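step 4 of 6: structure.
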Amino acid sequence: MPTAAAGPEIERLIALLARLPGLGPRSARRAALFLIKKREQIMAPLAAAMRTALEKIEICRVCGNIDTQNPCTVCTDVRRDPAIIVAVADVADLWALERAHAVNARYHVLGGTLSPLDGIGPQDLSIDALVSRAHDPAVTEVILALNATVDGQTTAHYITDLLHGANVKVTRLAHGVPVGGELDYLDEGTLAAAIRQRTTF
Ligand code: ZN
């Protein structure tokens, strides 16, 4: 086992940073060193921002978005079209669509996709809540903005069947999304085009 180059507090900081997505042990070490060198300009404000976020973050009771207000900023924005609900697997997808200014609608975060292999069934996702929102007479369309993966498409078909009873058009993203593609990784132009050219399920 290699000997630690720094005291336990710094090694713990590195170990925690290494658990962030996209950061391996080497870049975590580099990030830790950067934070330590810039402790006044970056580390202290970052620590304060993280503490505030930790105290204030809530899951939106309407759509499942993460925000510091509940219902969230998106759900309470009166300029959004209340007729359209965009169903996404994850908050990261919601944020990606917002970054792309792809659609001026409301969202519904499912919390994942159906995955029999991983033991994720309908009861593990926020599907019932989506179906109940779709029965609101103000809602006319549900866009299934799900990954172009097997699990994403299985989920889309499952939800489409459930929505037959609701008086809504069910659409999905156009073929701008590559097969196997994850929305969070698409560039903003592709995402916006995929929403604009959506097709009826
Ligand atoms: Zn919300």
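step 5 of 6: annotate
 - The pocket of zinc ion is lined by residues 60, 62-63, 65, 71-72, 74-75 (CB under 6 Å).
 - The beta strands are 58-59, 66-67, 81-88, 105-109, 141-144, 169-172, 199-200.
step 6 of 6: archive
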